[in-house]
Amino acid sequence: MAIRRSIAVVSIVGAIVLAGAAAALVFTNPDRFRPEVIAYLQNKTGKQIQISRIGVSLSPTLSIRLYDFGVKNPMLHKIAAAAEREADTASHRV
């Protein structure tokens, strides 16, 4: 009898926890954390980060998805621009 009661209590507590987690996913918008995630990643990488939206799902496992995730390297743009200017200058010298 005590074992059945323990199983019932554990089952009820587990169902409440799962229902709470599901409700939290349904009623919260993960996109509200997007500016914080972008700022964190930019601080850690030193590069410009782009994320169009953030999604969270529980099925089949807990997952966090970053849609249209992009990392820009400003140094590459500066190097490419300098190379382009150098090529432009060289073509004018000829």
What can you see in these coordinates?
The chain has helices at residues 2-27, 34-45, 74-93; strands at 48-50, 53-57, 63-67, 70-72. The chain is an alpha+beta fold and 94 residues long. The chain has one domain. The protein has a two-stranded antiparallel sheet with strand order 1-4. The chain has a two-stranded antiparallel sheet with strand order 2-3. A hairpin with a 5-residue loop joins strand 2 (53-57) and strand 3. The longest helix is centred in the N-terminal third of the chain and has 26 residues, at 2-27.
Keywords:
17% strand, alpha+beta, 62% helix, two-stranded antiparallel sheet
Q: What's the SSE blueprint?
A:
Elements: H1 2-27, H2 34-45, E1 48-50, E2 53-57, E3 63-67, E4 70-72, H3 74-93
Antiparallel strand pairs: 1-4, 2-3
Mean pLDDT: 83
Share of residues in strands: 15-25%
Instruction: Write down the oligomeric state.
Output: single chain
Please tally the β strands and state the result.
4
Instruction: List SSEs in N-to-C order.
Output: HHEEEEH
Class by SSE composition: alpha+beta
Biggest sheet: strands side by side, in what order?
Answer: 1-4
Largest sheet: 2 strands, antiparallel
Taking the alpha carbons of the first and last residues, their distance comes to 97 Å
What's the tally of helices?
3
The residue ranges in which pLDDT falls below 50 over 5 or more consecutive positions are none
Shape: rod-shaped
Q: What would you report as the Rg, rounded to the nearest angstrom?
A: 25 Å
How many domain regions? Answer: 1
Helical content, roughly? 55-70%
